[in-house]
């Protein structure tokens, strides 16, 4: 069983330690999401925090970025309403 587990659960990338430069984006409209996407794709920071008052849209945008960031190196995306 452990041999099967080792073959199935191989580590794809080395875990990244915190870079110390986390970017927070307040407002997840078109401009905020364009900024978040650009920050991640241009390797400005690997940690992005999204803040907005609309929780449903916030969670949806977070999931979209997380889905797309599967192709980037160790992107960490968090979201909060700030309440």
UniProtKB/TrEMBL annotation:
This is L-lactate dehydrogenase. The keyword Oxidoreductase applies. It comes from Anopheles darlingi. Keywords: NAD, Oxidoreductase. Residues 22-77 form the Lactate/malate dehydrogenase N-terminal domain. GO terms for molecular function: L-lactate dehydrogenase (NAD+) activity. It holds the Pfam family Ldh_1_N. It comes from the Eukaryota. One of its GO terms (biological process) is lactate metabolic process. PANTHER family: L-2-HYDROXYCARBOXYLATE DEHYDROGENASE (NAD(P)(+)) (PTHR43128), L-LACTATE DEHYDROGENASE (PTHR43128:SF16).
